[in-house]
Amino acid sequence: MTATGLTAIDVGLRGAASGVFLLIVLVALLRRATGQQALLGIAMCAGGIFYAIATAPNLPKSSWWWVLPILSAQPAVFWLWARAAFDDDFVLRRWHGALWLAIVAFGFAITLGWAYWPALAGAGGRALALATLVLALAAAVQTVKTWRADLVARRRRLRLAMLAINVVLIATVGVAGFAAIPVAVPGAPGSLPTALGLFVVAMLAGIGLFSAPAMAVNDATAAIASGEAGRQAPAADRAAAGRIVVDPILLRRLDHLMTVERTYRQEGLAIGALAARLDVPEHRLRQAINEGLGYRNFNAFLNRYRIDDARLALSDVTQREVPVLTIAMDAGFQSIGPFNRAFKAETGMTPTEFRREALSRPDSSELSQPRREIG
Fold it and tell me: Fewest CB within a 10 Å sphere: which of 58, 114, 222, 223?
């Protein structure tokens, strides 16, 4: 095939990818998605459009001095999106925005200083490439770290595929920076693979979004998930949506393990071990907890019981001298940090504050809420 034909294919793939990204953004805006994952997804899609156009073959490069700094900050956006997508407890902080701005400012310093201090600018470019690789690695680690606890089958499949492709793309850009090669040189041999990668990513995002029912789009893929995770949906809503297809006997057996045998107290309990106790395939247990009970994360499911257990102990006058760490460990937590975070997220107080308030009341036992039965 001639160079002209390859260029036409390159431009066509970029145009198609840009169209899909734009459609996702428009759908997100029409659905008024305002969650942090939605906003990060929109930013990612906008960055994909921007990158596809700015690095297209035969496009005038007179504006690259301001284009490249913004593109160089896309790995930071992608890393934040990965955090929001795979960590149900993630919350955007001001320093995340400051990090993005710092990368953009550093990129401007490099491009503006290239004509005057090429050696220094080259070193800055390699530093920026290193930051890209670090952020790509952090996004990959986030996926692996939370993959086992993820109960949403669609999210486990589609987001993992999308993440792998995105990490490869970002790593390619980073390696190009180390080799002193301009980012995705338009018309160069690396341009067509980049266009193909963008097209695949866009199609995965589109399939994940438009193949899912509107109520389940949170679980789909990339761009516009709401991020409302780890909480139980009302049983009536789940039933109305036709999502409850779980064996009630399995739910009762699971309830027995949790409320009677207190299996949640087992140190390092994983979903595979729990499935073995119930003698069911792991995917069936994931479906039961996700579709039958409304949990998107296995740790959130366990923490419900662990926090209830800790509340009972903290409000028990006979255990007022027992250290908080001991109570946390007895409930199944492996360290005090995760226990404090989970407890405060659930009750709005630290364990120490909860104990002080509970023991100051005449009948502290009334503070402990009765356990809810499953199924």
Answer: 58
